[in-house]
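Aim 2 progress update. The chain analyzed this quarter is reproduced below.
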Amino acid sequence: METNKYNLEIRIRGGKLALDDLDVLQHIDTETLDPDERRVVELVEDDRVEITESSFRDGPCRVYRFRTEDTEVAKKYGFEVEETRYLKYINVSADLEGADRNSVLAFRLQDLVKDITMAITLLATPKVELTDVDWDKRGGWTLIFETTHEGAAKAYGFEEMLLPGEEDYEPTPWAAEQNGEVQS
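Predicted structure tokens:
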């Protein structure tokens, strides 16, 4: 069973102190802080919360980013759930170059019909979203679908996934298995 990860970003306008620095916290009176600053201090001091990025300045604001797997903490402080995102690419173009025999042409068109049928099915599937339509002069049109619903992703053969907290997509376990890849 996969554990949910929750993320929270807090921006404090004009924040001068790095409240995620424990040395700083030892030398300030937290009672003089505004409510958002006190909230940051509470999160920094809570062992169930991880600081995912040290505080940094973004224009006039100091930004703090936190993550937790604790649902109670997430609800208390207003964290957002970070879920695994699954992607599926469907190419809706057919390469008819060299398909001079009826059997070859029929085979390629049947593949195109399968792809179009899958695209129509995904467009009608709840919890699956068309996120992009891409054109490439060599490959034609590609439809890119996304879902956070693992059951739908598995049922419809989504090929890639982006795990919570990661930046790079990787093959889904079922796509890797189908391709003979070993998952770590």
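Residues 5-82 form one domain. Strands lie at 5-13, 49-58, 61-68, 80-82, 85-91, 128-136, 140-147, 160-162, 170-171. These observations will guide the mutagenesis experiments scheduled for the next reporting period.
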